[in-house]
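Worked Example 4.2. Consider the chain below.
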Amino acid sequence: MNRVGVLSIVLAAAITGACGGADGASSAPTGPSSTTTTTSSQPTSQSSCVPANLRVASIQGTVVTLEWNSVSGATEYLVLVGSAPSSSDQLSTNTTNTNYTWTARSGRQYARIQAKCNGQFGGSSNEVEYTVGN
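Applying the procedure from the previous section yields the following structure tokens:
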């Protein structure tokens, strides 16, 4: 017998043994296993982790203060400010407060907030547009 034939016999024996083909075993198929599947209590969607009611609380010269409603379970907030909608080229910083004050550049800016819940950042809040200076 050549090597391929011997290898085929060895593989067939290994598969038969691994699949319950031992002596006295039934050739009838067995039912599904009783494996228990558990699911995580962490939500699959971060839709409830979105700050609401973002607003510009004040602009005094170039000092801007944003405020927003707290998110239940949030451990921190990401403040994103950009020179164009949905951008963050002006500011990207974290805070545990529901307000943030900084000295901004002059010009039109767009801000949004993201909350971190269960270790992941959720979606962005409403975006506010405001102008500093000018």
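The first strand starts at residue 55 and ends at 60. Residues 55-132 form a domain with the Immunoglobulin-like fold (CATH 2.60.40.10). Compare this with Example 4.1 before moving on.
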